[in-house]
Amino acid sequence: MAETPRAVAAPGRRSRRWSPLERMLRETAGPYIAGIDEVGRGPLAGPVVACAVVMPPDARAIRGVDDSKALTVVERVRLARQIRERAIAVSVGAASVREIDRFNIYHATVLAMRRALARLRVAPHHVLVDGKPFRTLGVEHTAIVGGDASCYSIACASIVAKVTRDRLMQALAGRYPVYGWERNVGYGTRTHLAGLDAHGTTPHHRRSFVPVRQLGLFASPATPPEHPERMEGTDRGERAEPTEIADSTEASESSSPLEGRAELAALVRDVAQAEGDETRMQVRTL
Q1: Among candidates 128, 152, 168, which has minimal Cα distance to 250?
Q2: In the chain, N or C terminus with fewer CB closer than 10 Å?
Q3: pTM (2 d.p.)
Q4: Extended strands (E) in 113-225
Q5: How many domains does the chain have?
């Protein structure tokens, strides 16, 4: 499809029903409307994650679906399970910390979205995106400012993306307990900043996001932070290993009642590919 992005105003604040825009697009474009949203643009650590969802056009909307930020953890987990069970197609994509630092968060977000769309097992007739249009998304799409709070398809994607990324960060918290990732999922809270002050960085920290007062932890004067291609390791020259992420994920899977292992495996695969070491990754999918 030719890329002709456009932006529209949010059609409303409730997402328990299909929005008028979605109904109109089903009539004019086709029945399969993909909603896509991202999570993790602002944290100091971890990947940015996008989810694409195609919900059945002839089914009623799942009651309670809303912007993931407006829901409790328990509500998000329950709704993510229902979304996976009912969706025609659901997929996730991620851009790694390395890609965020190399390309910037905007381009990394688009990369994650493109990966999520490419994994959909059905070709959507139209794509709805939260926020403003992305010129490099590569597909025809309509952007809705505030769409995660007003558009059913986007809200579904928002919930699955949030649950999936949170789960990964909670798994990594088992290996790096001093940053409070099990609670802040990588955002710059007091606990997280205190951990950086006391213990330095991990391979999962974004070099371009950490506050200026922390940049000295990353590199010596011979390896300045303005060269992202040389900033894939810790202050000791270590790098993030895909196997480390996968192992942490497996540990979480064995003890957590949450679902969505296939989506989590896809997320880990994206991170592994970015690190150039996918053959060493060990992830079992459902």
Answers
A1: 168
A2: C
A3: 0.76
A4: 126-130, 141-144
A5: 1
